[in-house]
From TrEMBL:
This is HesB/IscA family protein. Belongs to the HesB/IscA family. NCBIfam families: iron-sulfur cluster assembly accessory protein (TIGR00049). It comes from the Bacteria. InterPro entries: ATAP, ATAP_core_dom, Fe-S_cluster_asmbl/transfer, FeS_cluster_insertion_CS, HesB-like_dom_sf. It comes from Sphingobium rhizovicinum. Residues 17-116 form the Core domain. Pfam families: Fe-S_biosyn. PROSITE patterns: HESB.
Amino acid sequence: MTETTTKVRARPAAVILTPSAQQRIADLMAQAPEGTIGVKLSTPKRGCSGLAYSVDYVTEEAKFDEKIETPGGILYIDGASVLYLVGSTMDWVEDDFTAGFVFNNPNAKGSCGCGESFTV
């Protein structure tokens, strides 16, 4: 009888983080409240187009969350949001007037005029 071995292949992360986004996560974790284990990206229903991007501190892992380890901390992606975000790039952009995470999401079919929400 021949023994069968199973090879487990690492899968690519659902979301690609730019160096700027990774640095912002590190900055957030450096000032995070006690008990924080990472930051979590989710897509709650909100805005004029349907879904929005939300990044918040998280204190415990949820069973179906995607986990992306970065040098400065862990980014969790809400399990229910992963399908809307696969293949996206997350960036942190700052200029003289605004600062925030910016998403290049190939799954988005449209967005509202202010860029606050998107449809899939």
